[in-house]
Each structure stands twice: as structure tokens, then as C-alpha cells.
Amino acid sequence: MASNKILMIAIVTVFLPTIAMATTYIVGDSSGWTINFDYQAWAKDKVFYVGDKLVFQYPQGVHNVFKVNGTAFQNCTIPPANQALTSGNDTIVLATPGRKWYICGVANHCSDYGQKLAITVQYSYGWAPAPTPSSPWAPAPSVPTTPPTEPWAPAPAPSSPWAPAPSVPTTPPTEHWAPAPAPSSPWAPAPSPYPWI
Ligand SMILES: *[C@@H]1O[C@H](CO)[C@@H](O)[C@H](O)[C@H]1NC(C)=O
Ligand SMILES: *[C@@H]1O[C@H](CO)[C@@H](O)[C@H](O)[C@H]1NC(C)=O
Ligand SMILES: *[C@@H]1O[C@H](CO)[C@@H](O)[C@H](O)[C@H]1NC(C)=O
């Protein structure tokens, strides 16, 4: 629906300054990055956008952070040690949209103590690449910006101030092009010139 698309663009435009502001998340909040913490519950009510940051905080040497794929996340497969983040205050910028997985690679913290985090990162208008027609949020180029010139097209409805799209009727209104009412059938008796008969 063209009007839905336009409404969405209007909403995104209105809220663009809010969306474009990057958020920094301390993973686990005051608990930090640790064992026996439900990181899925922590992430559940959050919406992560490209440009946001995750900060993993933990006592250096007690834990670490590996970015892994979904398979390694499921299985707690620990990558080579040289891929670990180990500062105890590891900041990760969410640079691309999609599913992201993080695990602790120390001992069996991932497999036995649930020290693993999976999130989904959403596009953000402020950080997204230029719109392409394939992007679901891109404006469709086919939406007309001016009313069509057909003589029977009504003027765009002025009820929605933000909606530039004309509402194009699927069937033309009848009043301009409809044939005149059929003349009385040739076989019909002419009105009597003598109404008193
Ligand atoms: C996930 O990562 C592991 C190594 O960490 C790799 O062997 C595996 O092929 C990857 N799986 C996918 C689906 O990319
Ligand atoms: C998952 O881990 C188990 C035990 O460590 C291993 O045998 C299995 O091959 C792993 N599976 C994948 C898909 O990595
Ligand atoms: C963690 O790193 C951020 C910058 O990434 C810094 O602003 C902050 O002060 C650091 N916190 C600690 C406790 O080191």
C-alpha cells in the first residue's frame, strides 16, 4: 500500500534524530559479563541498531569475549585464543545488521554457565548505506508524486496533510464519461398529445 509506505517514511523522518543517536549497552548492566546470568532475558526487551555499542565488563583474566557464528554459539565452540577480547572493558561497535553471537571462552563458562549472548541488530537510518530498491524500507520509485493528468481524476484528498500521493480510483467516476440516459425506446408509445384521453 502506497499510503503505508509513505506513512512509514514520514514516521522514520520524524524520528530520525532519535534513531540516529547511538546507544551504548553495558552487557548485563550492573552484573556485567559473568557466569550464571540470563543474557537472553537481558537482550529480550532491547532493540539494537547499527551504530550501537556493546560493552563487556568483567575482571580481566576471569572472562573473555569471542564473537562467533550461530553454530559455534549453539555448541560453545571456542575459537583460537588470539581472537579473544580480554581487556575487561571490551567495546564492540555493532557495525552491520543481522544476528550476532558472543561467548566467553574461559573454561566451560559458555557450555555450563550460560555465559553467551545472542542479539539481532537492526538497520538504522542514520547509519545505513544509501537506500536501494531491494531494501524493504526504501521508498518505491513508482509512487507518483503528482496527480495523473487524466481529466476524470479527482483532486488528491486533502484530509492527510503528509500524504502527497493522489488516490487513483480503480474505476472512473461515472458523472463525466457515462453515456447520457438512454432515450426512450423507439417502440414506446409517444406521450399522448391529448393528456385528457
Ligand atoms: C562457524 O565458525 C566455525 C569456527 O569458529 C567454523 O568452523 C564454521 O564453519 C562456521 N560455520 C558457519 C556456518 O559459518
Ligand atoms: C559440538 O560439540 C561436540 C562436543 O564438543 C562435537 O562433538 C560436535 O562435533 C560439535 N558440533 C558442531 C556442529 O560443531
Ligand atoms: C571502558 O571503556 C570506555 C571506552 O570504550 C571508557 O569510556 C570507560 O571509562 C571504560 N571503563 C572502565 C571501567 O575502564
UniProtKB/TrEMBL annotation:
Residues 136-197 are annotated as: Disordered. Residues 23-123 form the Phytocyanin domain. It is a single-pass type I membrane protein. Residues 1-22 form the signal peptide. One of its GO terms (biological process) is response to symbiotic fungus. PROSITE patterns: PHYTOCYANIN. GO terms for cellular component: plasma membrane. It is found in: Membrane. Residues 136-172, 180-197 have a biased composition (Pro residues). It comes from the Eukaryota. Keywords: Copper, Disulfide bond, Electron transport, Glycoprotein, Membrane, Metal-binding, Signal, Transmembrane, Transmembrane helix, Transport. Its main location: membrane. GO terms for molecular function: electron transfer activity; metal ion binding. This is Plastocyanin-like protein. It comes from Corchorus olitorius.
